[in-house]
């Protein structure tokens, strides 16, 4: 297992533009100031409507759920419908149901209040890596994560068709809309159907070897995938170890195309 990222490297400055949608100035003020010390430019708005009307083209959105004019989940849905910008939800809602709904709507991560600026920076680093967006510093790009590259091409597993080149998934001919991280998780597990992948293997590969945060985010993504695939049997739990991909009620037959 790789050693943790040194704190100095974790908190090195990044020239990224963030959009913070947060109505509580007691949170937004210190957060904007703290992120600014590490080189982030933060545009702060207090309502969902203002966030949706923002034209600054941010590199990442920090979204509170408890907004005064509309539910943050609706803001997330609207943002995702028109943009692939990474979204991190920051909220006092810590229930699993809220996390799952947020992730299903397209959020890339979920951070419960209270949290520290350094933890948030770690999440921003991980999310931008996974999204393929460069997290630039004044002296150059952040070092890339040494994640394993998945197999290329189309793969058919029973009624499920997965294409890694186009990042599309179809089930019984119907398109299944997945977030980038949901697709990466499904593609990783489906590389070798029936194989049990440990939680640490999955977190290191699909997330980041230096991911900071509870592994319950993995459970939330697995639950979201099971819902979207309409059958929990696609991803089964190996108790005490991790997860495996299976074709529910059918013999596994995978076909790889160049």
UniProtKB/TrEMBL annotation:
<keyword id="KW-0597">Phosphoprotein</keyword>
<feature type="compositionally biased region" description="Low complexity">
    <location>
        <begin position="145"/>
        <end position="155"/>
    </location>
</feature>
<dbReference type="GO" id="GO:0000976">
    <property type="term" value="F:transcription cis-regulatory region binding"/>
</dbReference>
<keyword id="KW-0902">Two-component regulatory system</keyword>
<dbReference type="InterPro" id="IPR001867">
    <property type="entry name" value="OmpR/PhoB-type_DNA-bd"/>
</dbReference>
<protein>
    <submittedName>
        <fullName>DNA-binding response regulator</fullName>
    </submittedName>
</protein>
<feature type="domain" description="Response regulatory">
    <location>
        <begin position="17"/>
        <end position="128"/>
    </location>
</feature>
<dbReference type="GO" id="GO:0006355">
    <property type="term" value="P:regulation of DNA-templated transcription"/>
</dbReference>
<dbReference type="GO" id="GO:0032993">
    <property type="term" value="C:protein-DNA complex"/>
</dbReference>
<dbReference type="Pfam" id="PF00072">
    <property type="entry name" value="Response_reg"/>
</dbReference>
<dbReference type="InterPro" id="IPR011006">
    <property type="entry name" value="CheY-like_superfamily"/>
</dbReference>
<dbReference type="Pfam" id="PF00486">
    <property type="entry name" value="Trans_reg_C"/>
</dbReference>
<keyword id="KW-0804">Transcription</keyword>
<dbReference type="InterPro" id="IPR016032">
    <property type="entry name" value="Sig_transdc_resp-reg_C-effctor"/>
</dbReference>
<feature type="DNA-binding region" description="OmpR/PhoB-type">
    <location>
        <begin position="152"/>
        <end position="247"/>
    </location>
</feature>
<keyword id="KW-0805">Transcription regulation</keyword>
<dbReference type="InterPro" id="IPR039420">
    <property type="entry name" value="WalR-like"/>
</dbReference>
<dbReference type="GO" id="GO:0000156">
    <property type="term" value="F:phosphorelay response regulator activity"/>
</dbReference>
<dbReference type="InterPro" id="IPR001789">
    <property type="entry name" value="Sig_transdc_resp-reg_receiver"/>
</dbReference>
<feature type="modified residue" description="4-aspartylphosphate">
    <location>
        <position position="64"/>
    </location>
</feature>
<feature type="domain" description="OmpR/PhoB-type">
    <location>
        <begin position="152"/>
        <end position="247"/>
    </location>
</feature>
<dbReference type="GO" id="GO:0005829">
    <property type="term" value="C:cytosol"/>
</dbReference>
<dbReference type="InterPro" id="IPR036388">
    <property type="entry name" value="WH-like_DNA-bd_sf"/>
</dbReference>
<feature type="region of interest" description="Disordered">
    <location>
        <begin position="133"/>
        <end position="159"/>
    </location>
</feature>
<keyword id="KW-0238">DNA-binding</keyword>
